[in-house]
Fold this sequence. Notes:
Bound molecules: 3-methyl-2-ureido-butyric acid
GO molecular function, one term: hydrolase activity
Shape: globular
Strand content: 25-35%
CATH topology: Nitrilase/N-carbamoyl-D-aminoacid amidohydrolase
Oligomer: single chain
Keywords: Hydrolase
Organism: Roseibium algae
Distance between the termini: 51 Å
Domain CN hydrolase: 5-277
Protein name: N-carbamoyl-D-amino-acid hydrolase
CATH architecture: 4-Layer Sandwich
Helix content: 10-25%
Amino acid sequence: MSRRLVIAAAQLGPIARDEPRSDVVARMVGLMRTAAGRGAELVVFPELALTTFFPRWFMEDQTEIDRFFETEMPSSETLPLFNAAKDLGVAFSFGYAEKTVDETGKTRRFNTSILIGSDGEILAKYRKIHLPGHNEHEDWRPFQHLEKRYFEVGDMGFPVSEALKCRIGMCICNDRRWPETFRMLGLQKAELVLLGYNTPVHYPPAPDHDHLQDFHNHLCMQAGAYQNGTWVVGVAKAGCEEGCDLIGGTCIIAPTGEIVAKCATLGDEVIVAECDLDRCREIQDNIFNFAHHRQPDQYGLLTEKISS
Ligand code: CDV
């Protein structure tokens, strides 16, 4: 069986606060068709792909907040995505705000990504673990980043699934800045990491770093790919969304850490690469052969709780 997978990264341009789901889904279906026309077998969309990046606004009315959440997947509004995938014979992944009721009857809200097979079945799910930002309104900020207010920390760990001829993990936006994320996936022999993001150019707590946002984006994804010998597909929601500039830089990264395809715009755009999954061996069997070279006995601090 060929271990080559043709992967498309489908960057989304801005989504307006009042843009209906149906419009966004139609844009995504259009990108999926473009990707399939270029031979893609898997199409990867960004974090919170169905709506504007709503954590930039402080809201107290739960009904208003819940408008940005999905209570079923697929729903009547998202079903066209699943139908298009079946029609085109492509798998796809995307992020959305998930509202669910657990077995105890408690309502839970997560920043979630799913992987869907070309038969329309959900193959894997991940709930974001590293939630950036803050809980309360901070009026010194030009815009808010209230992920800690609107979401719970993911409760599924960092799963890796056997799917589409390989071992696939997912993570979401801020997760990519943490080497622990990639190492958790790498330790499970991930060969492909799917990753969507919404990253503002302006970082209010350290504005001196604004000019480094694109650099830091690629730095951590390329390091994550190389240090774990895995393909990484990083997909942006980009452009000026409701007055907030978001970086682009959507790219596909080889296990050597090299970028093999990259978006050139800040709008809706598809890039495609043929990914040889066996190339993971070049790294995983050699320089980062964990069984031979890791020294976990020396890494105790990594899992200790540090109080200050
Ligand atoms: N959506 C995100 O997680 N964004 C963060 C910003 C706030 C820094 C990121 O790490 O890109």
